[in-house]
Predict the 3D structure of the following.
Amino acid sequence: MQLDTSTLPLTAHSADLIAVGRRPDGSFTAELGVLEAPLTAALAQAKHRGDVAELSLWPTLGLVSAAQVAIVGVGDASPDALRRAAGAIGHAARGAGADAVALALGALDDVSEVAVLEGFNAGKYRYNEHLSGPQTAEPSRLTLVSDPALELAGALPFAQAIDAGQSLARDLVNAPAAVIFPESLAAVAMGLVAEGIEVEVWDEQKIRAEGMGGITAVGQGSSRPPRFIHMTYRPAGAPRKKLGIIGKGVTFDAGGLSIKTADGMMTMRCDMAGSAAVIGVMKAIAALKPDVEVHGIIGAAENMLGGDAYKLGDVLRMHNGKTVEIHNTDAEGRLVLGDCLSYASALGLDAMVDIATLTGACVVALGDLYSALFSHDNSVADGILASAQQSGELVWRMPLEVAYKERLKTDFADLKNVGGPPGGSITAALFLSEFVGSTPWAHLDIAGPAFFAKKTRHFVSGGTGCMVPTLTRWILA
């Protein structure tokens, strides 16, 4: 998409859609000339209040050269409010088939510029790979209108990198499980080699030989063998720090022998959203080239019900030597992540974060808008929370209460893979903590916001690319 800036009046642009913000006091973020009086009257009739992302679309009736005008509420005009407002415009522009859009949301600082571009890009996204017939194309040109002129030299590269990474993550989550499975997910990661990322992929024999009992067990019930993926970005000079991001890559989760219901399986192609976010972040990092060494690690497997499927009562030996008794084969993501975290803990990282659609209990606790953050390390947790706030992603820190480890005890192994329904997201995080060694670590449970069943805010239904903006900022901080 071509991006331009302009100081011309908004109504002078020959765009398919012109868009302007409206504040709660009824004022607009740009002059509307001949459109202002009729729009003010129409908005009053429609009871448009200027709430954040509240959108109203109107024909211009030939009064200006643009075909349509969109009014969007900007609320307090904070960066997050502007991100959501721009997202609503991006969504409306794609829906209207607008090729050229001129957008005036007032004078923007560097942070707000990035927020506007992030929001617009996320709003215009669609996944149409399997739809027949003509589809509306995304806008090919966006003009940001402001007086004084906007300076986008710093904002544009970052916003473009986030867009590329987040859109890739969304594509991976939205693709059917017949398209994205462990081998094909590894092939996508291998595609980043051309962008300067080192990639190593282990097949099922290597995974077993390396003692990764969790990934091996989860993947053995499928005709699609598991894969372990290690991506590395190395800066040109000495790295300022070394960080790891570890993603759960369960490309389809039928629940194993603890089988899910049909409804429960319907969107389980999204159970690899953590791994999609890791690949998306690595793509963004490849473009931004920070002075940070970054390791992206993924355990990829399908959790199916074949004759070799792992069973209740099985005892697995994990990568770090600990043993796990299986009490629920549908608690598989923590087994995959346990091996990955053990591997990552030996890399000499300054900090690492795992990201996973791990528990339904997290959705019960926080709903579908919030990700849960667990960590014993305040520095890592504070850094992620700050990056999430800058990204407009909602993250809530949850307790990692060590007393609950009692619920993971069993007579037949070092621990079991479930701790019972109460505090289920906490006991899952405590399970993971058994595999992190001494590396400062945090766990992000994105079971809620990774995939929306219907349009939510400016995100269409499907994958959201959740945490790509946050983790990219965390790495750059």
Observations:
- The mean pLDDT is 97.
